[in-house]
């Protein structure tokens, strides 16, 4: 139970220190990028090349990036809420199983979205056609998403087995 308390404390710390300020900064940046489009050059500047594309394209890529960031913050929020059920000693609750599946699904979407956004940013903003095949953080996010989906299935089977054992006394 001590490990669970440490995990909950760490997730709460991450939530308070990074996620809440990130929400505020992303909301500010969403508005500010339409007022001053030059700020997007700071975000999408890669390998010291200047962006030579339309402002609308850069703003659309910026909005997609911000949306994916909000989805990742939502994943941390769901994980925070799921840990509460572990503290209540209800690990096989339907809410936990559904959240694990949802977190996995969203993490896979985040990994694929960031990969596509990186590819599109390279293609449209620096006019380079690069495909990076190999180890990347986006691949790890996809693997983490698949892990959460498998964990959801394992908890679903465990819940079913537990219910059967309670009926056969």
Defining traits:
169 residues; mainly alpha
Task: Provide a descriptive summary of the structure in words.
- Helices cover 80% and strands 0% of the residues.
- It is built from five helices and no strands.
- It has helices at residues 2-35, 39-44, 55-87, 94-125, 137-167.
- Helix 1 runs antiparallel to helix 3 (55-87), helix 3 packs antiparallel against helix 4 and helix 4 (94-125) packs antiparallel against helix 5 (137-167).
Short description:
This protein has 169 residues and is mainly α. The longest helix is centred in the N-terminal third of the chain and has 34 residues.
Write the layout of secondary structure elements.
Elements: H1 2-35, H2 39-44, H3 55-87, H4 94-125, H5 137-167
Helix pairs in contact: 1-3, 3-4, 4-5
Q: Figure out the total of helices.
A: 5
- Reading the helices and strands in chain order gives HHHHH
* Gyration radius, rounded: 20 Å
The main β sheet shows up as: none
Strand content: under 5%
Mean pLDDT: 86
Q: Estimate the global geometry from the Cα principal axes.
A: elongated
Number of strands: 0
- Low-confidence regions: 46-50
> Which percent bin holds the helix content?
over 70%
């Amino acid at each position: 139970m001590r490990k669970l308390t440490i995990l909950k404390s760490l997730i709460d710390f991450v939530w308070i220190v990074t996620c809440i300020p990130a929400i505020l900064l992303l909301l500010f940046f969403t508005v500010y990028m339409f007022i001053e489009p030059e700020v997007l050059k700071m975000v999408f500047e890669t390998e010291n090349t200047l962006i030579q594309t339309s402002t609308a394209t850069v703003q659309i890529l910026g909005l997609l990036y911000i949306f994916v960031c909000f989805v990742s913050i939502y994943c941390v929020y769901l994980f925070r809420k799921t840990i509460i059920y572990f503290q209540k000693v209800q690990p096989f609750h339907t809410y936990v199983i559904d959240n694990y599946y949802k977190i996995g699904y969203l993490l896979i979407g985040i990994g694929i979205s960031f990969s596509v956004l990186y590819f599109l940013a390279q293609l449209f903003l620096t006019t380079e056609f690069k495909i990076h095949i190999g180890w990347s953080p986006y691949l790890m996010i996809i693997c983490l998403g698949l892990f959460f989906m498998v964990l959801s299935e394992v908890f679903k089977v465990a819940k079913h087995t537990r219910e059967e054992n309670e009926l056969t006394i």
